[in-house]
Amino acid sequence: MAGYVLVTDATVDLPQSVIEQYGIHVIPMAFDLDGKDYFHYADCREMPLSVFYDKLKQGSVSHSSQITPQMFKDNFKPILESGKDIIYIGFSSGLSNTWQNAFLTIQDLQEKYPDRKIIGIDSLSASVGEAVLVLNAAQRMAGGMELEELAAWVKCHRHAARHWFTVQDLFYLKRGGRLSTAEALVGTALKIRPVLSVDREGKLIVCAKVRGEKKAMDFLMGKLREEGVSLSEQTAVIGHSANPGQAEALQKMLEAEGLVKDSIISEIGPIIGTHVGPGFLALTFIGEEDRD
């Protein structure tokens, strides 16, 4: 058994079965819906995702919150006091101040627990992009990789985690400032779907625009063929928000081409779902190693 624990946050968007399989510790994150506060846990104990997205479709408004330093302490301290070290892979600093709170907490706890190792890594990604990095780290941890070696692998592969996604309702990107009102109106009228990813600073960027669901899926598949490495050894992660039909169709496309070893479908939680709305579809995988 490893002498350390892999910790991440609730933006990771991995199925609960995978989290349990690898013993990943997921820190819950807060969100509010119509002014009422909730915590999103990996097992969705406070609000099922079906309820969350149904409410968004009915016009409810949601906001997400960062993890506070106290929440980090509450999750890190029991692990340290049990005699284990920590590797924390966190939500992109380009999208939230959560990473800064984690960094400050780790500095504080390292002074109080000098015999323990706490390694924090900014994933520079979110949702299923963060998930594919965490999944690969968990698999290596289960294979016996030591803490420092795993940390080095994550740091040099965080830019290799490829995450491509599209959205169905442009309203949510407009509200978050990713699209102008005019772009959202025109895109909706023409059924144009933006394709997004993150840049090297972990910030969200619009990379392309396609028309229709089929072309969106073809674009994602094209990126897998173009950028993926050692695909026959990989588990790709497909993410969706209240969009199971398209996610399953994308998985069937993967299976038909035999491009990857396996694939996982994961529904997007309310932290990221707040900003992309229902109809999100993503494909994530590991591309060429990128040392930074």
UniProtKB/TrEMBL annotation:
Gene3D superfamilies: 3.30.1180.10, degv family protein, Dihydroxyacetone kinase, domain 1. Pfam families: DegV. GO terms for molecular function: lipid binding. SUPFAM superfamilies: DAK1/DegV-like (SSF82549). InterPro entries: DegV, DegV_C, DegV_domain_contain. PANTHER family: DEGV DOMAIN-CONTAINING PROTEIN DR_1986-RELATED (PTHR33434), DEGV DOMAIN-CONTAINING PROTEIN YITS (PTHR33434:SF3). PROSITE patterns: DEGV (PS51482). May bind long-chain fatty acids, such as palmitate, and may play a role in lipid transport or fatty acid metabolism. Keywords: Lipid-binding. This is DegV family protein with EDD domain.
